[in-house]
């Protein structure tokens, strides 16, 4: 199912799409949901909500996709967009440097409203400048955020970004801010603790050989 949501339905995952006005957020969603693109420009008014069912590791996951307006006049509404989000796709436009510089502001908002959610960074419109993919974008590296080069015009990497974001969102929902490594270490620690406790219980005192 991939519909523009007219009435509220419960979803497993809330995915938010953020970035400056005209970076291509709405076209990005349209390319993913309908595999279509037209260059007609229409600014999002406040918020559009879509829903899509996806397959993650053989399980059906219902994803709400929040398409937010990039225009500054809607900034005061952003707190509600971020509320209980599980992951975020953050776009900039490779043809406009200001949209890259402003990532700091968007990143600050994510940290403020939902500190630990996974983020996927998108350098969009690479069809207009293919050589940009050789450039090293420090923002991604410095903040440890995965970076994809995409084009809504020809579809490059759009599906990959959604897949990655939803997989990260599912992981985040399961394990919160903990990484899978943290989770595995905790299980290991618990098991070692149980083993140690067992050896005390069996002999009445602690087995020092272990
Ligand atoms: N060449 C090219 N143009 C793109 C691409 N993605 C979006 N555009 C164009 O960029 C303009 C803005 O796209 P939108 O998707 O409306 O941008 P937005 O981020 O949703 O903008 P707001 O709703 O105002 O926040 C449109 O004219 C699109 O056709 C792309 O990958 N390549
Ligand atoms: Mg839009």
Automatic annotation (TrEMBL):
It holds the Pfam family Ras. GO terms for molecular function: GTP binding; GTPase activity. The keyword Nucleotide-binding applies. It comes from the Eukaryota. It comes from Chaetoceros tenuissimus. Keywords: Nucleotide-binding. This is Uncharacterized protein. InterPro entries: P-loop_NTPase (IPR027417), Small_GTP-bd (IPR005225), Small_GTPase (IPR001806).
